[in-house]
Amino acid sequence: MTSSRRTLKAAEAIREVVAMSILTDLQDPRIRDVTITRVEVSGDMRHAKVFISVMGDETQEQLTLRGLQSAAGFLQAKCAKRIDTRYTPRLQFQIDEGVKKSVEVTQLLKEIFPDGVEPPDNSE
To answer: Does residue 77 sit in helix, strand or coil?
Structure first.
């Protein structure tokens, strides 16, 4: 995935459209507690990876992912109205593992450094 100015603008527009559509237009009960973390658009503007974070367990993540994949055509049509390009990017939804990893690291740090004990500051 390349990042020219054009693809970055398209990615941001897709993020906005998909996020707003999830909030206001989708009625699927599987899709809830979801955040669009980022979007990566291919250089030819034919594909877009939409990274999501879901509050809940693995089951809720998979339900939300399937719901979004079912709604991909509807969301692509919404994007087509907003983005003026020859091709409307095909949306592919993916769980953002970075968010999950950061939560795991935070939990590990809480185990290592109990309440009231600060980790050493190594910035100096």
So the answer is: helix
